[in-house]
Design brief:
Length: about 280
């Protein structure tokens, strides 16, 4: 649908703009109709499309696994039960290898949720870039980004939530005194370097959630951008359109690897950070 826009930059900007709701400088609340409105709304604006698709896909995940659990049998399992059991065993194996056998009731469900939920959000990148935004425009919705993980608000929201969970277990397992001492005595265990250690550990703590969330965002945002650039070829003539179709197919096949890999990386880093929070020994 690139031909509907004045130029390629307007097409790209439209596909990279979130459906935003927030408060204008006048005090009124409403929908943003362009980048100027979004800038006016500021930090507390809500990306409604990100919220909708992330929650919707989270519900899809719950329904899929709930159906598998209710139809589970001890006899010959069906294909869906086989798949769900494979995923659960895959997650359990990774937890055992990294986290060990420590008792923790949350790490298994959390890791499984992250793996499937992030995978489903990433997989929306394989939907043709014009399909859902064009359908939304037909009913009066000006913007619609369907890949929640291309929004840093979503990826950093997840990573910061995990960061607070890591802090909670640091205080619970190590205690506030030992945890605080580890911030000033590592890596140089001398009183004169406590200030330097605190700076290093603070930077390290802040860098973890940032890198955790931005890694996922950056990879998926780049993938979405490539799909958008390829879509521009469809309005450039028959030959370039056919070439664009071939490129889109090739990139989609390659992008499946990125979709799976980034979901796995986000999950495994969560397990690693929780493992570090439970480790009471000096590194």
């Amino acid at each position: 649908m690139a031909g509907e826009y004045k130029d390629s930059s307007e097409y790209i900007q439209h596909h990279l703009t979130n459906l935003t709701y927030g408060q204008f400088e006048t005090g009124e609340w409403g929908w943003a109709h362009g980048p100027e409105d979004i800038a006016e709304m500021g930090f507390w604006a809500i990306h409604v499309d990100t919220m909708f698709w992330s929650i919707f896909l989270g519900i899809v995940f719950l329904i899929m696994f709930l159906m598998a659990s209710r139809k589970a049998t001890t006899g010959v399992p069906g294909g869906w039960q086989n798949f769900c059991e494979f995923v659960v065993e895959f997650v359990e194996d990774n937890i055992t290898q990294v986290f060990g056998t420590r008792p923790n009731p949350i790490i298994g469900p959390l890791s499984l949720t992250i793996l499937i939920w992030v995978f489903l959000m990433n997989m929306m990148d394989l939907v043709p870039v014009d399909l859902i935004p064009h359908a939304a425009a037909l009913v009066g919705i000006p913007y619609m980004k369907v890949v929640a993980t291309t929004d840093p608000n979503a990826t950093l929201g997840m990573s910061v939530s995990i960061f607070f969970l890591v802090l909670y277990y640091n205080f619970k397992i190590k205690g506030p005194v030992k945890f605080g001492a580890s911030l000033v005595t590592h890596p140089i265990p001398h009183w004169s370097m406590y200030w330097f250690n605190l700076i290093l550990e603070t930077v390290d703590m802040i860098a973890k959630p940032l890198s955790h969330g931005l890694r996922l965002f950056g990879n998926l945002y780049a993938g979405e951008m490539i799909f958008i650039l390829i879509a521009l070829l469809y309005s450039s003539g028959i030959l370039l359109g056919l070439f664009g179709g071939l490129l889109q197919w090739a990139w989609a096949v390659f992008h499946i690897l990125i979709i799976c890999l980034q979901a796995f990386v986000f999950m495994i880093l969560t397990i690693v950070y929780l493992t570090q929070a439970h480790d009471v020994d000096e590194h």
